[in-house]
């Protein structure tokens, strides 16, 4: 089977449960939900992994897509991702993690392949469970916490009223960037999205 015919595993990182739904840390779930809607796919519990999964295609004849929301809490996200990568026979190079990023100003996107985890426990768990850091990352900037607030507390707070004014547009743009990576590749997408 050629690699081109294999699906892409797009992992939205976040925490399950209504109390976390609007948190900065849950931006990956928000993007995954939007992508599922675009693909006409619905999330349901996977029989092998502690995750919700939605399968679909990008457009007519576009690449196959397996959208994943791990249901283990952020720090243990890697286990379900590794299980699903094996189940769908997806190589690490066709895995995309969508996540919040403290070191990038609010609303900015940065895409990369591999590299460090920048203290992000979801990424750390994925790298450990996959035995590799060479997956793609779509990083949604949430900025640094104000004053002396602990970053661990900051990521578990909801977006501010000011931020929420733009959030829908920014989630939409992030979903566009994910689709672009799958269809046009990382370099093209970096050139298109890193300007803004």
TrEMBL record:
Transmembrane segments: none
Molecular function terms, GO-annotated: peptidyl-tRNA hydrolase activity
Annotated positions for site Stabilizes the basic form of H active site to accept a proton: 100
Record-linked Gene3D superfamilies: Peptidyl-tRNA hydrolase (3.40.50.1470)
Annotated EC: 3.1.1.29
Subcellular location: Cytoplasm
Signal peptide residue numbers: none
Coiled coil: none
Record keywords: Cytoplasm, Hydrolase, RNA-binding, tRNA-binding
Enzyme class: hydrolase
Positions annotated as active site in the UniProt record: 25 (proton acceptor)
Residues annotated as binding tRNA: 20, 73, 75, 121
Record carries keyword Transcription regulation: no
Biological role: Catalyzes the release of premature peptidyl moieties from peptidyl-tRNA molecules trapped in stalled 50S ribosomal subunits, and thus maintains levels of free tRNAs and 50S ribosomes. Hydrolyzes ribosome-free peptidyl-tRNAs (with 1 or more amino acids incorporated), which drop off the ribosome during protein synthesis, or as a result of ribosome stalling.
HAMAP family assigned to the protein according to its UniProt record, in alphabetical order: Pept_tRNA_hydro_bact
Protein name: Peptidyl-tRNA hydrolase
Organism annotation: Plantactinospora siamensis
Gene: pth
């Amino acid at each position: 089977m050629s690699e081109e015919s294999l699906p892409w595993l797009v992992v939205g990182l976040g925490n399950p449960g209504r109390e976390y739904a609007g948190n900065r840390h849950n931006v990956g779930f928000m993007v995954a939900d939007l992508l599922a809607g675009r693909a006409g796919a619905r999330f349901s519990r996977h029989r092998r992994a502690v995750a919700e999964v939605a399968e679909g295609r990008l457009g007519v004849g576009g690449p196959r897509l397996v959208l994943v929301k791990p249901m283990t809490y952020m720090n243990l996200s890697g286990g379900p991702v590794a299980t699903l990568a094996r189940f769908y026979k997806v190589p690490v190079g066709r895995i995309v993690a969508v996540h919040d990023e403290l070191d990038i100003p609010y609303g900015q996107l940065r895409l990369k392949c591999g590299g460090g985890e920048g203290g992000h426990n979801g990424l750390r768990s994925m790298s450990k469970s996959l035995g590799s850091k060479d997956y793609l990352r779509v990083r949604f900037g949430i900025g640094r916490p104000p004053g002396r607030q602990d970053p661990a507390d900051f990521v578990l707070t909801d977006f501010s009223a000011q931020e929420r004014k733009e959030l829908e547009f920014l989630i939409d743009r992030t979903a566009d960037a994910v689709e672009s990576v799958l269809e046009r590749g990382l370099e093209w997408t970096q050139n298109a999205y890193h300007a803004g």
